[in-house]
Design brief:
46% of the residues are buried. This protein has a five-stranded mixed sheet. The chain contains eleven helices and eleven strands. The protein has two domains: 170 residues, ATPase, nucleotide binding domain (Nucleotidyltransferase, domain 5, 2-Layer Sandwich); 112 residues, ATPase, nucleotide binding domain (Nucleotidyltransferase, domain 5), CATH 3.30.420. It is α/β, with parallel strands linked by helices.
């Protein structure tokens, strides 16, 4: 897809000078974006048992799509649930928090974005960003309870005998959404079972749709509480795997009282896009800037083609490929960063 097809504002300010990749390794699904000077390529796979294998599969798919070779990729940034498991010996890389990447991805698509709701498989977040820079101003996350997350909706679909992709459309057919009052997932499940049994006893053919709608509204109320803590300002964007659930989108818009902004690509790729934009920035930045990008310094492989005597400016958190010996002062700096 051409960048001109997705960018709200042109000229687009985030094009890298060479291909870069963003990997978003989620708890349930993993996404990847490859950016070139004028194109964006995306791919998705279910997250496997081993995060590095999932990342490798994503990268291989992108390379097949584009006809590029690994050596053509200038930088990789990883984010999401499995980011800490990523490592590359042959490509410079860094890991960045998903909050930073979702903010940057939404901002890259629509610079007017101010508020983001991100609902993934294991958590949900409300993020407020600066529209001038795309940087995070404030964010809040759900607590350890799974209510309001993709995992809760997945379990609800099973209880109703539906596939996860069917849950949202079924909810849209509701005539009187059921009242699911429990905030705890365990008790909410009990309510769902009771409501379904009651509908079956009374031959209520619409019971399943009403329960499905009630589940979405219960989840949306949980997420709306997060949103209330950061404020709601337009443009409001919905990201994460649950962004494709039409039932959840409707419930959120009904409770918030305003629509989500339209986006030119599937917003499950927001985190991966933000990671790719960050990769482009890191690829063009001086080496000393890599470790401090967005305030998230993580283990990174520096480019292998820099002679050792030119690496005197290595920042804390930057790692050379294993085949290159580290200067003693870089080792000390990395140790201090880990502390």
């Amino acid at each position: 897809m051409k960048i001109s097809d997705i960018a709200v504002d042109l000229p687009w300010r985030f094009a890298p000078d060479r291909p870069v990749v963003g990997l978003d390794i989620g708890s349930r699904g993993s996404k990847a974006v490859l950016l070139t000077t004028d194109e964006i390529h995306t791919t998705f796979v279910a997250t496997g048992l081993y995060m590095q294998e999932t990342a490798d599969e994503l990268l291989a798919r992108l390379l097949r799509q584009t006809g590029l070779a690994r050596q053509d990729v200038k930088f990789v940034v990883g984010t999401g649930y499995g980011r800490i498991s990523l490592a590359y010996d042959d490509i410079p890389y860094q890991v960045v928090t998903e909050i930073t990447c979702h903010a940057l991805g939404a901002h890259a698509l629509n610079p007017r974005t101010r508020t983001i709701i991100d609902i993934g498989g294991q958590d949900s977040k409300a993020i407020k960003i600066d529209p001038a820079t795309g940087k995070v101003v404030q964010f809040v996350m759900n607590d350890k309870c799974a209510a309001g997350t993709g995992r809760f909706l997945e379990k609800a679909a099973v209880l109703l005998g539906l596939g996860l992709d069917e849950l949202g459309p079924v909810a849209l057919a509701a005539t009187a959404p059921a009242q699911i009052s429990s905030q705890c997932v365990v008790f909410a499940e009990s309510e769902m079972i009771s409501l379904r049994a009651r509908g079956e006893r009374h031959g209520d053919g619409s019971a399943r749709a009403n329960i499905a709608a009630g589940i979405h509204y219960a989840s949306a109320r949980r997420v709306k509480t997060l949103l209330g803590r950061v404020g709601t300002e337009p443009d409001l964007v919905f990201t994460g795997g649950v962004a494709n659930n039409v039932g959840m989108r409707k419930a959120m818009e009904d409770l918030i009282g305003r629509p989500f902004a339209a986006t030119p690509i599937d917003m499950i790729y927001a985190g991966a896009l933000g990671a790719a934009v960050q990769a482009g920035r890191l690829a063009s930045a001086k080496p000393a800037a890599h470790g401090a990008a967005n305030g998230h310094a993580h283990p990174t492989h520096a480019a292998a083609d820099h002679p050792l005597h030119h690496r005197h400016d290595l920042p804390a958190g930057i790692r050379l490929p294993e085949r290159v010996a580290k200067p003693a002062h870089a080792v000390r700096a990395a140790a201090q960063a880990d502390d």
